[in-house]
Amino acid sequence: MINVLVADDELPAVEELAFLLGRDARIGAIHRASSGAEALRTLERESVDAVFLDIHMPALSGLDIARAISRSSNPPAVVFVTADEDCALEAFDLAAIDYLLKPLRAERLARSVDRISELLKDGTPAPEMITVELGGTTRMIRRDDISYVQAQGDYARLHTAEASYLIRVPLSDLEQQWAEAGFIRIHRSYLIALNHVGHLKLAAARASVTVAGAELPISRRHLPSVRDKLQATRIRPQG
């Protein structure tokens, strides 16, 4: 059973979310808090697997609570529940596993519980989630679903098998932040995920790499390091 905490300074919102969660057979204890301070006190005395946090609460916001619990040795999964689309990037920074917009839809909430259940079942660290927008809708995608990233000025376009998403983060920042996750720079305009590489092609005029079906150029400057890293993963060059 998944034990959860619902924190919102508006009582009707707390009760609505608690009601919807209570209809899911996977949910166990549902703790309630009407302020950030009460939420932290509850987390100190109760064993909680996931917290559903409103962002805008007096004194301690949902973002403040997420920052506080992120410093614990075994933090619960964090899901933000808000009417505010503008805090999605901060949610990304705090590694939330989901970002739900009010008014809540039962089927959308069920997908959040799916993610929490998968996380608890596997006993592995939560996948890094990236907050994106598509068609005016805010959603979160897994970083390990991203095959490559393309620079577009001060923005970066994230390419997955399903779609591409534009985020306001320079490619150089992602290069540093995602290096340990297996992303490498191959060109001034491209960052690729090693686990999505098909093959490396070396020709007299140019070098390229195939990533999720897309052939991307490798610059001369980056070629030595790219070749070494790909060969370390047993991807050999083709003529």
From TrEMBL:
One of the Pfam families matching this protein, by short name: Response_reg
Source species of the chain: Arthrobacter cavernae
UniProt keyword terms in alphabetical order: Phosphoprotein
Domain Response regulatory: residue ranges: 3-117
Residue positions where 4-aspartylphosphate is found in the record: D54
Keyword Cytoplasm: no
Record SMART domains: LytTR (SM00850), REC (SM00448)
Name listed for the protein in its UniProt record: Response regulator transcription factor
Domain called HTH LytTR-type: residue spans: 130-232
Any one GO molecular function term: phosphorelay response regulator activity
Keyword hit for Methyltransferase: no
Highest taxon of the lineage: Bacteria
